[in-house]
C-alpha cells in the first residue's frame, strides 16, 4: 500500500487516517454483495425435505416467508396467489390422506398455495391460464428461498386430490389449488446431493437447440 502524497499531504495524522480508510475498503464488503452471496447460497441449498424433527416452527416465521411471495412479478400487477396457513392437526391429517403422502401428517404446519383467477382472467383472457400458473411458480420460489434462508424445511407437494383438499379447507370452486407445503425443521440433512441438470443441457443460443454461442459466418456471394 503506497501513500499518494499529492492527495494526502505529509501530515502524519492524515497519513494514518489514509491507511485506516484503505484497510476499511479492503475488508468491508458492501451489503448488496453480501446479500447476493446469501441469495446464491439459498438457491443452491434449497432441498425437498420429507422428514421433520419434533421442533415446532414459529408460525410468524412462516408468515414472513409468505410475505416474500408478495414481491413476485405478476402480469398487469394483478396478484393472483392466495395462501392458507393450516395448523389444525385433523386438517393436516386429511391433507396427507388427500395427497396419499403420509409424511405430510408429521408437519406442524401446512401452507396451501392457491390462485384466485378473477382479475388475471378479466385482464388477459386466453393467456390468463398460463399467467396464473407462472405467477404461482414465481411466488412459490420466493417463498421457498425464504424458507431456506430461515432454516425451515418443506417439500413442494403437487400430487393431491383437488376436490378433497378443497373440501377440507373450504376453497371455492373457481380457485385453483396450486401446491401444498408441509413445514417443519429438517430431521437431518439429505445425504445425497440431488443431481441438478447441467447448464449445457438447458441453454441454447439464438435458436432452439443451438448450443453454440458463436455466430454463423455470413458468406457474401
Ligand atoms: C410441481 C412440483 C410437484 C411436486 N410434487 C411432489 C409431490 O407430490 N411429492 C413429493 O414428495 N415431492 C414433490 N415435488 C418435489 C420434487 O420431487 C423435488 O423438487 C425434486 O425431486 C428435486 O429435489 P429438490 O427439491 O431437493 O431439489 C414436486 C416438485 C414440483 C416442482
Structural features, described:
The protein is α+β, with helices and mostly antiparallel strands. The chain has nine helices and four strands; from the N terminus they run ααααβαβααβαβα. The N and C termini lie far apart (59 Å). The mean pLDDT is 91. The site of flavin mononucleotide has 10 residues, from loops.
| Number of discrete domains | 2
Bound molecule types: flavin mononucleotide
Largest sheet, strands/sense/barrel:
4 strands, antiparallel
Question: What is the rounded Rg?
Answer: 25 Å
Low-confidence stretches: none
Number of strands: 4
Walk across the major sheet and give the strand order. 1-2-4-3
Q: Under CATH, the topology of the largest domain is which?
A: NADH Oxidase
Beta fraction: 5-15%
Bin the helical content. Answer: 40-55%
Please write the CATH class name of the largest domain: Alpha Beta
- The total of helices stands at 9
Tertiary shape:
extended
H/E order of the elements?
HHHHEHEHHEHEH
Q: Indicate the structural class.
A: alpha+beta
CATH architect. name of the largest domain: 3-Layer(aba) Sandwich
Relevant CATH superfamily of the largest domain: NADH Oxidase
What distance lies between the first and last C-alpha atoms, to the nearest angstrom?
59 Å
